[in-house]
Amino acid sequence: MKLRYLAAASAAMLIAISTISTPAFAGWSGHGTAYTPHGTYNGAHYGSCTGGSCMHAGGVENPYGGIATNTGTVNRTAPGQFSNSGTATGPNGRQVQHSGDTSCAGGTCDHTGALNGSDGHSATTSGSVTRNAPGQYSSSGTVTGANGNTTSHTASTDCAGSTCNRSGTVTGSDGGTVNHSGSATRVAPGVVTTGGGTTVVHGGTVTTGTVTTVGATVAVGSVPVVVAPPPVVVAPAPVVVAPVPVVAAPAPVVVAPPPAYVPPPPVAYVPPPAPKTVYVAPPAPKVVYVAPPPPKVVYVAPPPPHVVFIAPQAHTLYVAPRPVYVAPAPHPAVLVPGHWVGRFWVPAHWA
């Protein structure tokens, strides 16, 4: 949800900045309101240029009162060569330091950049925008996070009359793709209606002078194309896909320049500041402590008692035989007459 708010807010800022013409020698300011399905976004910005260097500052308020700001500078280091740096601050106070270099030649502008968040996350970007024909542009690029995951994006824009149509594809590091398309029509000065029915109303004042367009691809003097670097959001790989609608938002601004446009001398041209996407880092994940389930009480029955058989001791019982008197068998009695046995006289007896 926050990412959608960021995308809508960034789109509002980009469109607000893009629809304001800028002089090559003074300053500009303006404000805008974007009415989106997610709510109303209010933006304001200011910029000034001197001696080949431009500074800019702007902010967007979301429907819930959160404010995102972006400040920075753009320096023209050589014909067709520009460098930029700045700081974007989200509604939650987190910041992203961004810097980059842009080189334009032969109808193509190449851009490389780096972003470093206050939460330690970082990313690098690279890409290019080419003017294929009047009103026709194509772009491509990559975003690489600190973890090495790379997301690539391609898009094309075709403008005719007061309407611009755009389409593109974003491919994640996991091979997944997201296709996007839409259109924008300029129905009145400062009023743009998108294909989805969103109406963006802008207001502001600008000093007069040589006119160029900020945040869009236009022909300027001897430099066929001046392109603001595609906005990038530093986020985990699944989230990086979200910037697609933001990149496409400036498309309505590529509407034909004012009829009174007069190309400035190449020497006097000072590039306007490139719009920066406000990066709102997601809040740090909350540490949720999940208490472990209470230990299950497992009842372990005691082992069954061992049955021990103790054999009774064998007692030896001696039963004495009862005395039995056995009378001698009767035999006839014989009278033995007395006689000497050795020196002893044995009187007569029965035997």
Summarize the structure.
With 351 residues, the chain is mainly β.
What does this structure look like?
With 351 residues, the chain is mainly β. The protein has one domain: monomeric porin ompg (Porin), CATH 2.40.160. It has three helices and 22 strands. The strands form five sheets. Strands 2-3-4-5-6-7-8-9-10-11-12-13-14-15 form a 14-stranded antiparallel β-barrel. A two-stranded antiparallel sheet has the order 1-16. A two-stranded antiparallel ribbon has the order 17-18. A hairpin with a 2-residue loop joins β3 and β4. The N terminus is likely disordered.
Straight-line distance between termini: 144 Å
Gyration radius, in Å: 52 Å
Helix content: under 10%
Q: Can you write the helix and strand succession as a string?
A: HEEEEEEEEEEEEEEEEEEHHEEEE
Percent range for β-strand residues: over 45%
Tell the overall outline.
rod-shaped
Number of helices: 3
User: What is the CATH topology assignment?
Assistant: Porin
Number of strands: 22
In the CATH hierarchy, what is the architecture at level 2? Beta Barrel
Structural class estimated from helices and strands: mainly beta
Largest sheet: 14 strands, antiparallel, barrel
CATH superfamily: monomeric porin ompg
The averaged pLDDT comes out at 71
